[in-house]
Every structure is written in C-alpha cells, then in structure tokens.
Amino acid sequence: MSDLDIQIPTAFDPFAEANAGEAGAAAGSKDYVHVRIQQRNGRKSLTTVQGLKKEFSYSKILKDLKKEFCCNGTVVQDPELGQVIQLQGDQRKNVSNFLVQAGIVKKEHIKIHGF
C-alpha cells in the first residue's frame, strides 16, 4: 500500500474564506458611511447615518442637516453601532450629497441602503 499514491480527502470548510474575510471586513467596514432608511408607519420613514469618524461633531453635522433639509433629527447612542444620526423622512440622496459637498466623506465611501 505504500507504493500507491493515495490521497485522503481532508475536511473542507466552505466558509473558511468568508470567515477570514469577515475579520478584514469588520475593520474595512469602519471606512464606510452607511445611509439607511427605516419605515415607521404608513408613509413615514427615518433616515439613519452611521459610520462617521468620531473626530467629527455629530451635533454640528446634525444641526446643518436639519437646516439644509428642513426636517427634524437626533443623535442616538447605540451600544453596537456607536453614535447614529436619525433624520425624519427619506433624505438618503440629500445626506450623501451633503456629506460629499461638505468634504466629510468621499463619494466612494458612502453606501446607500434601502428600497
């Protein structure tokens, strides 16, 4: 039997690459600013912005966003996500354009989620 070249199948983990990618993706996902929409009730919705760098003043950004888009908003502290800006209405395109024009984030680092 030693003369034969027998290959014994080894255990194959189909998720090994995905798990290895998650460690890098977790660090890489910090680079993106996520702009999402959440449906409330009926036609009402919330726009959330997460992933801004901590060096920025969230309250000042919120103040400018509220003035620019004539909507109300707040900064919410989430245990998993950190600080999240919430705005009333569907402001996804407006917020992404504002963040790029203000020089806060580059366009390629914004991910817009929803519908």
UniProtKB/TrEMBL annotation:
It comes from the Eukaryota. CDD domains: eIF1_SUI1. SUPFAM superfamilies: eIF1-like (SSF55159). GO terms for molecular function: mRNA binding; RNA binding; translation initiation factor activity. Residues 33-103 form the SUI1 domain. Keywords: Initiation factor, Protein biosynthesis, Translation regulation. Pfam families: SUI1. One of its GO terms (biological process) is regulation of translation. Belongs to the SUI1 family. NCBIfam families: SUI1_MOF2. PANTHER family: EUKARYOTIC TRANSLATION INITIATION FACTOR SUI1. Probably involved in translation. This is Protein translation factor SUI1 homolog. It comes from Brachypodium distachyon.
